[in-house]
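Protein in question quoted in full.
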Amino acid sequence: MLVVGVLLCVLVLPNVYAQRPVQQDSTARRQAAPRPNQFEEAVRSSADLEVDGLVVDETITKIGRDFYDVFHRQWEAPPSAKNYTILIKERPTRGNGALIQVTLNDELLFEQQLMPRYDTIEETATYVAEGLFDYLVRNQLQQQLEAEGGQQLEVF
């Protein structure tokens, strides 16, 4: 009799336990599946997302990549700067150099040939980051003055 009871437990109980996870899985799937309204709301909220600034890397060689890495570490946009795109472009030159071009909103602001010396690359990238920061501040000030209808003033 004891053997029959143990055998019955072995045969019946696994079926009971096997059914519970299926029920729990289907319940979890119903809860995890996004409703169509949730998906539409997520798309609408992401459409309101606006990027203030963008830094694009179009470098090819190690020289350009080092320049971009140092620039990106040094770069901090002015708080008032909106809607700008910085493009760092590189063209390899003869020998082991590279021509670095930095444009801001499709306007070429910096172009220089660099050699593969890290200290020179670091110094140049820091100089460019500071120069772009100042340029964006002046450009933002000019746009504010034009919006107010005031005359352009010189900044010293």
Remarks:
- The longest helix spans residues 2-32.
- Residues 32 and 113 are 55 Å apart (CA to CA).
- The beta strands are 53-58, 84-92, 98-104, 107-114.
- The chain has two domains: 2-45, 53-148.
